[in-house]
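Case 232 in the screening queue. Each case pairs one protein sequence with one candidate compound; here the compound is ribose-5-phosphate. For every case the pipeline is the same: read the inputs, emit a complex structure as tokens, and attach any notable structural observations.

Predict complex for case 232.
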Amino acid sequence: MSAPTDLEALKKEAAIRAVALVQSGNRVGLGTGSTAKYAIEEIGRKLAAGELTGIVGVATSEASEKLAREVGIPTETLDPRLLDIAIDGADEIAPNLDLIKGLGGALVREKMTEVQAGRLIIIADHTKIVSRLGEKAPLPIEILQFGFLSTVERLREILPAGRLRHTGAQPYVTDNGNYIFDAQLPAEMDVRALERRLKGTLGVVDTGLFLGMAERAFVAAPDGVQELTAKP
Ligand SMILES: O=C[C@H](O)[C@H](O)[C@H](O)COP(=O)(O)O
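Case 232 output:
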């Protein structure tokens, strides 16, 4: 059988590798997006086949919650208990496994869920690898609807190139009822200092910077799946 070359097949391959780390009885953070979808489906398949038992999923979006139900994964909402593992996609993966996430709009629930996971495993195709965050993707920043024009003005003082995300003519609304400001990151940027500054900005709920959170990433390319680990 020849190696898969289309992106969907690659995403699925990465997802299957990550789900192999899930053990029976695990509480599992279920990511969001077109790659995480394959992981949810694979967990559902393994449950149906009896290859996994006793899994509880904690979904990071309404869409993932719905998919989990469809494939037979019992779910619970996030509570203070730790999760054994979380599996999710990413929009950009830096060499140290710092991430940009949230182009699918799920960044806040993802961050809240995945910070409680003993292991965060990222799955992606090779197009998500970058040498620095912001190389290809904007940084999504979730902001309150209330006073959003004021928040956008404050954000533009920090990151001048950015715009409010829209769906057609209307601002895009997250599962939490908030808006998203998508900002271009300049080439020279201390992302840790940026994260602190953004989180201290009035009206900001959270950002799509996932720094020091991922334990490993399965990145699928036409010549195979590469396993990347975060260097200490
Ligand atoms: O909000 C969306 C999430 O952060 C996704 O994990 C991210 O956008 C990657 O999605 P996809 O696998 O569809 O490229």
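Case 232 observations:
- The chain is about 30% helix and 25% strand.
- Helices lie at 7-19, 36-49, 62-70, 107-114, 148-158, 191-199.
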